[in-house]
Amino acid sequence: MITTCTPEPYCRVLSGVAGLGLPPVSVGDVSKRILVGRKLRSSQLGETLLPKRIALPVFASDALSSVAYAPDEVFIMLAVAGASTYVWSWKIGLAVAVVMLTVVASYRQTVHAYPSGGGDYEVATKNLGRTAGITVASALLVDYVLTVAVSISSAAQYAAGAYNPLVGHEATVAACAVVALTAANLRGVRESGAFFATPTYLFMVSIMGMCAYGLVRMFSGSLPDAESAHLEIDPAPGWEGPLSQVALMFLLARAFSSGCAALTGVEAISNGVPAFRKPKSQNAATTLLLLGLIAVTMMMSVIVLAKEMSIRYVDPHELDRLRTAAGDALPAGYEQHPVIAQIAAGVFDNFSPGFYFVLAVTGVILVLAANTAFNGFPVLGSILAHDGLAPRSLGSRGDRLAYSNGIVFLAAMSIALIVVFDAETTKLIQLYIVGVFVSFNLSQLGMIRHWTRALQGESDPSARRRMVRSRAINTFGLCLTAVVLVIVLVTKFLAGAWITILAMGFFFLVMKAISRHYARVETELAADEQDSVLPTRVHAVVLVSKLHKPTLRALAFAKATRPNVLEGICVSVDSERTNQLLKEWDERRLDVPLKVLYSPYREVVRPIVEYTQAIRKASPRGVVAVYIPEYVVGRWWEQLLHNQTALRLKGRLLFSPGVMVISVPFQLRSSAIALEREEREEGRVHAGDLRRGRVDTNGSTWRKDDE
Amino acid sequence: MITTCTPEPYCRVLSGVAGLGLPPVSVGDVSKRILVGRKLRSSQLGETLLPKRIALPVFASDALSSVAYAPDEVFIMLAVAGASTYVWSWKIGLAVAVVMLTVVASYRQTVHAYPSGGGDYEVATKNLGRTAGITVASALLVDYVLTVAVSISSAAQYAAGAYNPLVGHEATVAACAVVALTAANLRGVRESGAFFATPTYLFMVSIMGMCAYGLVRMFSGSLPDAESAHLEIDPAPGWEGPLSQVALMFLLARAFSSGCAALTGVEAISNGVPAFRKPKSQNAATTLLLLGLIAVTMMMSVIVLAKEMSIRYVDPHELDRLRTAAGDALPAGYEQHPVIAQIAAGVFDNFSPGFYFVLAVTGVILVLAANTAFNGFPVLGSILAHDGLAPRSLGSRGDRLAYSNGIVFLAAMSIALIVVFDAETTKLIQLYIVGVFVSFNLSQLGMIRHWTRALQGESDPSARRRMVRSRAINTFGLCLTAVVLVIVLVTKFLAGAWITILAMGFFFLVMKAISRHYARVETELAADEQDSVLPTRVHAVVLVSKLHKPTLRALAFAKATRPNVLEGICVSVDSERTNQLLKEWDERRLDVPLKVLYSPYREVVRPIVEYTQAIRKASPRGVVAVYIPEYVVGRWWEQLLHNQTALRLKGRLLFSPGVMVISVPFQLRSSAIALEREEREEGRVHAGDLRRGRVDTNGSTWRKDDE
C-alpha cells in the first residue's frame, strides 16, 4: 500500500514565522550576526526559470571576465623574447578564438544530449565510468578554488590600477575581498537576474564600446599610443639574440596556453540547463553560442587594439626589463597598468570618466566571476553527494554545517593560494587551466562514446545524420583540446601545473575512499530474508531522576506504547534523594514499578548500560526501549547545564544491540528562542539556488514550471 | 511497587574487556595518546580507607610545602626597612604559629561535627545559608588556581637554585611544569598512598633533619653564616631613616600576613574525612593535630636558623638593594637562593649531597602540593554540581568532558597567573591567602552557629560542656582569623588581593546564575495532577531512505510496540530512487504503508517536521513516534559520512510537542572500535578518587567498608 502526500507550500509556513515580529536573539547569535551580517530569508523561494536575456549574464560572468587577464598573459609571455614577438599576438588570439568556438560547438552538443545539468561530470561518468567522473570532479573542485584566486587577484590589480596607494598590497586587498565574499555567501546572497544582469551587461557594453570607439579612432588614424608604447623590452635572460625555430615555437605555445585561460567558465552553461526556460536545451545552446561570440569578439578586439597602440607589457616582477626608448632605466615608481586599463586610458584620453568606468565594471565582473565559484561549489557538492562521492548530507538542501564548511574551505584554499603566489595573476594562471582542459578532454571523449552508442540504437536517417554530425564536432573538439592539454602540460608543468595535478590527485583519492566506504556499508547493510523478524517482546525502561513533568510525560508516552514490561529506573548516587524519590513515587500511586540501581562510585551511565544488557541477555529475541526525558532549552549555556548525562548515555547505548533509545522532549519556555533560530536558519537563501532554478528573478512572485 | 538491584561488580566487566587484547586504535586516538600518554585503568577501583600514617601525607603536602616559601616572604617584607627589622622574624613566626594552631583546633571541631567531608563549604551552607556557601565555594575555586600558581612558581625557583642555567627562565619552567601536571591528570594519575607517603615523609625527614643538625651546630657554636650573611640591605625607597611606630606596625603586619601563607592547605583534611579509617572523625582530628605540630615546628626551625645564620633576603626584583659590607655593589650575576637552600648550603657546608637532597624533595613536595589542587578541583566541582551550583553532569563520576574541561580550565588560569606575574612567588602570594581566610572566617562563624543550635537541643550536661568548649574554640578562632583577614585585606588589597576578590565575585555570580536557572527550571517542571494523562493514540512513522537492514530493524521494532497507526515515510528528492524504493517495498510485501513526501527543493528535514505537525494537529491528544534508523560507526570520519541528516532531524523534532524520537541503532562492524574506545574511557582513574576514598592503596585488592 503506497500513499503520497505533498506538504503545504512552504511560503505560507514561513510567512507565519515572519509574522512573529522581531524575535529574541541570543548572545552567540548576535556575535555571529555582527560577523556575517543579517541573514537573508528565502521566503519567496520558488522554481522560476530564466529567459535567455537573464541566463546569459548569470552564466557568463566567469567566461567573459577572463578578457580582463587573458590578453595580458599573452603579451607577458611574448615579451619574454622582447617586443618584436608581439607581431604574433593577434595570431595567438585567433588560435584561442578557434579553440573557444570549437569548445562552444562541442558543448552545444552536450546541452542537447544531457539537459539535466550534470555537465562534464555527468557526461564522463555515464559514458566513461566512475573513475573518469571522479577525475572530472577533482578537476572541477580544483578549478573552483583557482577561479576565486585568479579572478580576485586580477580584480586587485585593477583596483591598484585605479587607486595607486593599493599598489604593492594586492595580496592583502585580494585576501580581504575573498573574506568579504565568503561572509556574503555564508550570510546568503540573494542571487537574482538583476544581480548579474546589470554588471555583466555594463561590462559588455563598456568593453565593446571602448573597443568600437578605439577601432573607429584607429581607422580614422587618431588612435593614440598606449602609455607604455615608448618603452623598450629587454629579452629575459636566456632569450637574448635571434630565436631558434624551436625556441620560438615553445614561446608561442606558452603564450597560447596562457591565452587559453579565456576558455574557463565556458562549461558553466552546461551545468545550468535546468534553469533555462523551455525549450531548455535549445535556449541553452543559443545562449552558449552567444556567449562564445561575445567572448571571442571582446578578446580579439582587445588584443588588436593593444597591438595597434604598441602596448609594452612584461611580468610585473620583471619591470626592470623595461627601458625607455633612449635606453635609460625606467623612472622610479613606474606602475604597469593592465592591458584594458592602458587601452581605456588611451582611447578615452580626452574622457577620463570612461577610463574609470571601464576599470570599475571590470573589477566588478571579476568579483562576480569569483562569486560563481562560491555558487557552483555547493551545487557540485550536492551532485557528488548524490552519487556517494561526498558526505550524503551535502545532497539535501539546508545542511547548513556542511554547506558553510564547503564555503569556508573554498575561501581558505583560495586565500592560501593568493598569499603564497602574492596575488600575481601571471603565476596563478600557470595552475589554472590544467583542470579545465582535463575535464574538456574527458567530456569530449564521453560525448563521442555517447553518440556512438546512440547511433547503435537509432535507425531514423535524419536523426542518425544529426548524431554523426554531433560526433564529428566532438571528435574535432577532442583533438583540439587534447593538443591544447598537451601544450599546457608541457609548457606549464614545472611552472605550477604540478600543484594542480597534486591537488586533483588528493581530491580523487578522497572521493574514491568515500565511495568505497559507502559501497562497503551498503554491502554490510543489504537486507536478507530474516531481517523482518519481529522482536518477541518489548521491555521498556523509563529513566527517572526526579518526578517532574518531563518524567511523567515520558512515563505516559511509554505507557501509551503498551510494552510487555514497563518500569522506571533510577540510578542512586545519593541515598537521601533516592528515598525522597521513592516516597514521591509511592504517593503518586504510579502503577509502574521503580527499580533503583545502586552506583557506589556515582557513575550514571554504566549501571544503566549494564542493566539493559542484562535484560537483553535474559531475552535475546526481545528489544529494550529506553525512554529518556529530555529538556529542550534555548540558550547554549542552558544546554551545558542540562542533558549532558542524557547525551552521554544515548551515545553509549547506541553500541548495545537490541536497545532503542527514545527521546521524549519537554520544551521549556526558553526553547522558543532556539526554535525561532532554527526556523530562521531553515529559511535562508543558499548560494547556488539561482543556477539550480530555485529562486525567482523578481523577488516577489513565484510560480512552478515543470519540464 | 519498588524493587532494587545492584549491578555486578565492575571489575569483572572490565577485566572482560581487557581480555580482548590490544584493540585497534583510531588516528585521533593515537594523536591524543601521544599528547597525554597511555591512559590508566581503574580496574581495581574500590573503596579503601586510609590509615592515619597514609592519610597524613595524602592531605599534608599542600600545608607542609608552604614552609618552602612562607619564611622567605616574611624576610622579604621585613627587609623593606633594612636588615635591622630581622629581629622581629621569630616573633612573627610565633604569631603565625599561634594562628596556625588555633585554626587547627577549630578544624578539629569541624571534623567531629561534619564527618561527611563537605568542609568549609558544607559548614557555611548548612549554618549560614546558600549565599555564604557560594562565597566559600568561590574562595575555594580561586584558591585552587593560586595553589597551583604559587607552588609551581616556588618549585621553579628551587629548580633554578639547584641548576643555575634555569635562572631567569622561571616562568617558562613553571608553565611547562603546569602543562606536564595537566597532561598527567588528564591521563589519569593513579593516586596511591605510596605516591604521597614517600616524598612527603622524605620532605619531613630532610627538613627536620636539616633543622635539627643546624640547631645542634648552633648550640655547639659551629653554625656557619649563610652565603648572604656578609651583605647589607638598603631600605626600600620611602623606608629610609628611623621607622615611625605606625610604619613599623604596618611593616610587621605585612610580614605577618605574608607568613600566614603557611596556613593554606590546613583545611584539606576537613574535606577528606570520609577517606579515613574508623573512627573517622577521631582519626582525622588526630592527623590534623599532627599536621599542625609538624608544620609549626618546621616553620619555626627554619625561621630561627635563618635568623641565626644572618640570612639577607630581599625581593628578587630589588637585588640592587643588597650591598657588600664594604658598601660596594654586588658582583654581577649574584643569585639569591631561597631561604631553605641557603640554610641547607650552610648547614651541610661539608656535605653537599645533603644540600641537593633538601632542594630536590622540596621541589617534589611543591609539585605534589600543586597536584592536590588538580585533585581537589573535580571533587569540589561534584559537590557544587550536587547542590545545583555547577552543571549537574559534573556530579556524576565519569563525565569525561566536564572533568577534562575543569582540569584544563585550572591549568589555563594558573599558567595565565604565572606568566602575568612572571612566576614570582612574592607577587603571587599577595593574591593567595585572601580566599583562604574568607573561608576560614565563614566556616568559624558557621561552626559557632552550629554549636549554638546544637546546644538548644542537648540536655546531657557533659555533652553540653563539650559543645560549649567547642564553641569557645571556634569563637576564639573566628576572632583571630577575622583580625588576620582584616590585616591581609589592609596590607594586600592594592598589592593584588583585589584581583582575587574580583575573581571570587565572578565565580560567585556564575554560581548564583546557575542556581537561579536550575530553580527556575524546577518550578517550570514541577508536576501537577494532569501530567499523568495518557496520550490517546500513538502514530508511529518510520523514516525510510533505503530498504536495508537498519530500516527493516526499525520497522520491526516499531511494529513490536504495536502503535495505533504505523507507516513508513520517505522524502522524495529524486524520483528515480523513490520509484526504485516503492518497487522494492511492494516486492517485500511489507504490510506497512509507505508514504512519500515530495520535496521539490531537496529539503529532507522540513517535510518530515511539517508532516509530524500535521499528524499532531489532527489528533492533539495523541503522540507521534518517529523511528530513525541510525548507523553506528567507529571512526570519526565515518561519522561525518553518516547520520548527519538524522542528527539534524532529531535536533529539529525536539521542538515539536507531542513528538518522541526513537533511535534504532544498527551497529556496523567498525563500531567495535568506538565501543572499545568508550570502554577504555570509562575505566579511567580520575584525579581526586583517592581523597574521595575510591582507589585502593596497594592496587591489587579491594574491599567495601561502610560507615
From TrEMBL, chains A, B:
Residues that span the membrane, as ranges: 87-107, 136-160, 166-186, 193-216, 287-306, 355-380, 401-423, 429-451, 472-490, 496-514
Keywords recorded for this protein, A-Z: Membrane, Transmembrane, Transmembrane helix
Region (Disordered): 682-707
Subcellular location: Membrane
Classification via Pfam families: AA_permease_2
UniProt-recorded Gene Ontology molecular function terms: transmembrane transporter activity
Compositionally biased region (Basic and acidic residues): 682-695
InterPro entries, alphabetized: AA/rel_permease1, APC_K+_Transporter
One GO cellular component, as annotated: membrane
PANTHER family: POTASSIUM TRANSPORTER KIMA (PTHR47704:SF1)
Name of this chain's protein: APC family permease
